[in-house]
Amino acid sequence: MSRELTFKSKDILNSHLHAGHSNPYTTSTSSGVLGRKTTTLKTGFLSGSAGKIDWRDKEFKIGGRTKKWRKVESSGGWFTSGREWEWAGYTYTVKHSHHKWTATNSHREVAYFTPYQSHLLRSSEHASLYISPEIQDEHQRVFLILVLLYSETKRQDKQHKTEAHHNLQSGNLIQIGDLKNSPSFSPGVNLS
């Protein structure tokens, strides 16, 4: 059975994921002073938590097993831009291209994630996730969901950091420009 899931909230780490009229998964994230603590994926298929991303300890917890990210993630090699993720003997290559994350196994697409897309003149598109019907094991589905959530969250974090850095640099340039135009500016002072 394939799973096309849509996130009800723009915040993918705190959302219901629904497929038609059912809500098979829910994400919730706890935070503290230092930022994110854990993101929990809950499902009706398993009692309690199906899996967790522990942002502080840098690990995944699925089905009673805990593994550090560095133990399950590796570079995809010289000829791929993706990262390889392994859980319980299954290896997936995950990469981002054209506003979409894809996960492949033996060069076959087994899952993809499309992030929220805001539009001005038409309805915004909610984030969505698809898992191939060939992924029968619930722990593998949970692992793929967590890896795609992790990957998109890290991409967004990097994008926000880059934007903040760019805004800071732009702000500094404006301040220097403002100084040059101020009445107290002395032409003999080098502001570069």
Give a description of the structure:
- The chain has 2 helices and 13 strands, in the order βββββββαββββββα.
- The chain has 192 residues and is of the alpha+beta class.
- It has one domain (3-151).
- A 13-stranded antiparallel beta sheet has the order 7-6-5-4-3-2-1-13-12-11-10-9-8.
- The radius of gyration is 21 Å and the shape is globular.
- Mean pLDDT is 84; it is low at 173-187.
Please specify the SSE layout and strand pairing.
Elements (H helix, E strand, L loop, with lengths): L2 E5 L7 E5 L2 E11 L2 E9 L5 E6 L4 E4 L2 E4 H4 E3 L7 E5 L2 E8 L2 E6 L2 E7 L13 E4 L6 H44 L11
Antiparallel strand pairs: 1-2, 1-13, 2-3, 3-4, 4-5, 5-6, 6-7, 8-9, 9-10, 10-11, 11-12, 12-13
Strand order of the largest sheet: 7-6-5-4-3-2-1-13-12-11-10-9-8
Tell me the radius of gyration: 21 Å
Main sheet specs = 13 strands, antiparallel
Euclidean distance between termini CA atoms:
62 Å
Helix proportion = 25-40%
Number of strands: 13
Structural class: alpha+beta
> Strand share of the residues?
35-45%
Q: Shape, please?
A: globular
* Count of DSSP H/I helices: 2
**Low-pLDDT segments:** 173-187
SSE topology string? EEEEEEEHEEEEEEH
Overall pLDDT metric: 84
Number of domains: 1
